[in-house]
Write a structure and sequence with these properties.
about 15% strand; D-Maltodextrin-Binding Protein, domain 2; globular; 6-stranded mixed β-sheet; alpha/beta; single chain; 15 strands
């Protein structure tokens, strides 16, 4: 008998065991049959294989080679339960999911890469069962539950995650120059001043925001990270939905803070060149020693390894030439640790029992640790042990997620397309390339916000 679920995973199961096999759920006048948490645990732990031979399709954007490790992570579960998981990766997911739903061929489970896209299908989805909601409450923070919810009702459980609140640096460069890792925003600026005024041959910071038709998104990430540091989470949310205008004085304060680094020639050298430097090449200087720091998401490591010859190392590996690591992009105080990032959410278009069991299993610490141990992946699951995360950068990412005082999704991904993937990008580019004034940038973005 394989004990997939730990005692922590079983919180609430004992009291749920008196429930009937199915629970009646109701949303929008539709009734659903839900398995109890105790019955799901029995299927997973005791290998009773009540639903052996049933297939559960998971439709997703995740394709090979990443999908291979997902499929490997399901092998013991499939052997135990007899449920067959059909992984269907499609890079055209965002367009095709609507086609499939409209055509009556919706998948059993779908992995949504954006909360906004998830919300668009709320009327077609099956609301989370009490069992699934209990597991999400136990294994994730309230912020993550929020992003899987629509109008306060949970529809989807968190899956994988990415973190953007990183500063990339070379431990060797820092050690050679006697620099300490900053733990507050003021310490970060003080370090930048020290580097700019010292004997270091390079710049304190390097950056790049060019990305073809998406040029400017890397600058919006600076704004989003700093909005979480200079303002409250509630202000961030108001900014995202425009209940606080984009040209509000609070947003201006944040843009000015971003400019104190990105538009400071003492820190970055040629400011306008940032607009024509690709986001991937923007961090090359950390590897070759032409800059000390670069703010970018966790995914940058793979780019620098592949394209710049870097080696990802731990913070204590100070003797590695070309070694790169990360530290947390600090908040206003050492106790303030907001995190910016993204992730995926697993929603269901059916209440069939086999799908409920799979959806629940993906929320357990047991599966999350199994998947992380296979490499190249991490999640916001509170039961994820960093010992199962081999990559030192991903270890830091997990620690950031588990210790975050606030977590918020990338704002531009949540805003209307004409703003988040339109004027926000183009105006931030003009801010860098043309030295467009702060207030003018914000006024121009606000002018493009669609009428409600």
């Amino acid at each position: 008998m394989r004990q997939f679920l730990s005692r922590r995973s079983m919180v609430g199961v004992a009291t749920a065991s008196v429930a009937a096999l199915t629970l009646a759920g109701c949303a929008g006048g539709t009734s659903y049959d839900y398995l109890s948490e105790a019955d799901i645990a029995t299927e997973i732990n005791d290998c009773v294989a009540t639903y052996a031979g049933e297939t559960v399709e998971i439709y997703t954007t995740i394709i090979e080679p990443e999908s291979t490790l997902f499929q490997e992570s399901f092998l013991e579960f499939e052997e135990c339960t007899g449920i067959i998981i059909e992984w269907n990766g499609d890079q055209a997911f965002e367009e095709q999911i609507a086609v499939r739903v409209e055509g009556g061929t919706a998948p059993d489970l779908a992995i949504f890469p954006q909360p906004g896209l998830l919300a668009a299908f709320a009327d077609d989805l099956v609301p989370a069962s009490p069992a699934l909601e209990s597991s999400v409450d136990t294994n994730y923070t309230a912020d993550w539950k929020l992003y899987g919810s629509v109008e306060d009702s949970l529809y989807a459980a968190p899956l994988g995650a990415n973190v953007k609140s990183f500063v990339w640096y070379s431990p060797k460069t820092f050690a050679d120059n006697g620099w300490d890792i900053p733990t507050t925003w003021d310490e970060l600026l003080a370090l930048s001043d020290e580097i700019a005024g010292g004997d270091f041959a390079g710049n304190a910071w390097c950056a790049g925001i060019e990305s073809g038709a998406a040029t400017g998104w890397a600058a919006t990430d600076w704004m989003e990270d700093l909005m979480l540091r200079f303002q409250t989470a509630e202000t961030y949310d108001a900014w995202v939905d425009n209940s606080m205008p984009f040209n509000d004085p609070k947003v201006l304060e944040v843009l000015e803070a971003a400019g104190s680094i990105l538009k400071n020639p003492d820190y970055v050298g040629n400011v306008s060149a940032i607009a024509t430097t690709s986001f991937s090449e923007g961090g090359f200087g950390v590897v070759d020693g032409s800059c000390a720091m670069h703010r970018q998401a966790s995914f940058l490591g793979g780019i620098l390894v592949g394209d710049a010859g870097a080696t990802i190392v731990g913070p204590d590996e100070t003797g590695v030439e070309g070694g790169i690591s990360t530290f947390y992009f600090p908040g206003r105080s050492a106790d303030d640790s907001p995190a910016l990032g993204g992730g995926e959410f697993v929603a269901s278009f059916t209440d069939k029992p086999a799908a409920q069991i799979v959806q629940y299993y993906l929320t357990t610490p047991e599966w999350n640790n199994k998947k992380a141990a296979l490499g190249g992946w991490f999640s916001p699951n509170l039961g994820l042990d960093t010992a199962n995360v081999a990559d030192p950068v991903n270890k830091v990412a997990v620690e950031i997620l588990q210790n975050a005082t606030t977590f918020r999704f990338d704002a531009s991904d949540l805003m209307p397309g004409e703003v988040g993937a339109g004027s926000f990008w183009t105006e931030m580019t003009a801010w860098i390339a043309e030295d467009k004034a702060d207030q003018a940038v914000l006024d121009a973005i606000q002018a493009t916000w669609p009428a409600s």
